[in-house]
Amino acid sequence: MSDRVPRNEPVMSEPEPSARAHRVLVVDDERNVHVALARQLKVDPYEVFTAESSDEALQLLGKHTFAVIVADYLMPKMNGIDLLAITQKLYPDTVRILFTAYNEANIAIEAINKGGIYRYIIKPWNGKEIRAIIREAVDRFQLAAINRKLFDLTKVQNQALLEKTKEIELKNRALKKLYEESNLNYLKSIEIFSSLLEVFDPWLMQHAKRVAELARLVCAKLDLEEKDRNHVEFSALLHDLGLIGLPKILSRKKFSLCSEDEKRLIKQHSQIGQNLVGKDPKFSTVAAIIRSHHERYDGKGWPDGLAGEDIPFGARIVAVIDAYDSLLYPANIYDRSSPESVKGYLYNSRGTRFDPRIVDTFLLALAEHGEITERGLIPVDQLRSQEEDLFT
Ligand SMILES: [Fe+2]
Asked: Within a domain: residue 93?
């Protein structure tokens, strides 16, 4: 054992190696060999460690991170290939180099296959060449370290992304639940309002149900979005809810037979309905439709005298269907009009009382449901007396 190179101490003790200097481990049972190699590497900023056996090398590998391990092939107990194979398994980033006095292909092949070595060096080596090889090996180690860092970073980022995705999913689920609950509350409120109407007057509720059913057909025909369809359908169901705030007798009385005071009272029902339903902001659209379901396309309706496109679209739909059902199924069975005459009246009121587009769509929707007879539309003069009873 040479006194000039202390065993297992960094050879680069003079000058003191940089804290970031890479470590190189030289393993050879012949001390003069690794001393010579260590000296040749001295010109580069490496911390060179030496070991005289594979056991000693494994102990050092367990204590430090080595950029490169250079192992002799022929050593007692465990040869260099087996040592490098273990190194590859335990410390895959450490670049492995085998050197040997035997220039035999089978050794090189085994070293590559078993130890995954980077280079195979034949003794005696050229100093310049070995330094170049070690430099390349250190570069390779650094590259592997950078790749590993990037890989770890990507892994951490992916994990963070996964957690964020889970968090978003949880929030979405919570929102969906809230939405469903709110929807459920919305439907429950509609049910409560409908029940009030039914208790007040079952006949009125039957009318409301038919108007809502026909409104659904028209909305489908107009290809409205589901949210808008619901608004129109619910408005149709609750359009006369305000009548519960008036004496019951008025809800069934022919409008043409009412006194002026009674007519004034009846005309309040659309605003009463709006106030009842509109207390919850969720029902603001439905409430607005209820308020305007007696507006006329020509501006002669009530309560606001709105005209044309100023009337909420849903209210224009409800107005047509409300008129259709009221004329077809009035409170007094003897006041009934035939479906044909009612359709004729609707047709002839396009652009005056009703939005022409809605009337056309409604008649088309009815035609598709087989309700237009072969007799076709009835002239408007036969329907004058019926018009009086549409609360105008
Ligand atoms: Fe009404």
From this structure: yes
Are 124 and 209 members of one domain? Answer: no
Do residues 365 and 226 share a domain? yes
Rounded percentage of the chain residues whose pLDDT exceeds 90: 41
The total number of structural domains that make up the chain = 2
pLDDT digits (tens, 9 = 90+) for 58-99: 999 999 999 999 999 888 888 899 999 999 999 999 999 998
Tell me the sheet residues that pair with 264.
none
Of 86, 119, 150, which residue sits at a domain end?
Answer: 150
Question: Residue 236 Cα, ligand 1 centroid: separation in angstroms?
Answer: 10
**Ligand 1: centre distance to CA 294 (Å):** 6
Looking at residue 45, what is its pLDDT?
81
SS3 370: coil
CA of 27 to the centre of ligand 1 (A): 100
Residue 46: phi, psi to the nearest 5? -115, 155
138 contact partners, CB below 8 Å, separation of at least 6: 22, 24, 46, 67, 68, 95
Mean pLDDT of the chain: 84
Q: Report the alpha-carbon distance of residue 371 to residue 239 in Å, rounded.
A: 24
Distance CA 218, CA 223 (A): 8
| Residue 141: count of CB within 10 angstroms of its CB | 21
* pLDDT tens per residue across span 198-228: 888 888 888 898 899 889 989 999 999 999 9
Which domain range does residue 71 map to? Answer: 22-150
253 and 342 both lie in a single domain: yes
Q: Which two tokens stand for residue 41?
A: 């590497």
Q: Which residues surround ligand 1, an ion (CB under 5 A)?
A: 240
- CATH code of the domain in which 300 resides: 1.10.3210.10
CA of 185 to the centre of ligand 1 (A): 25
Say whether both 146 and 228 belong to one domain. Answer: no
What is the distance between the alpha carbons of residues 268 and 247, in angstroms, rounded to a whole number?
A: 12
- What is the distance in A from the centroid of ligand 1 to the CA of 238? 9
In angstroms, what is the span from residue 319 Cα to ligand 1's centroid? 8
Q: Does residue 155 register a pLDDT over 60?
A: yes
Q: How far is the CA of 358 from the centre of ligand 1 (A)?
A: 18
Spacing, Cα 240 to ligand 1 middle (Å): 5
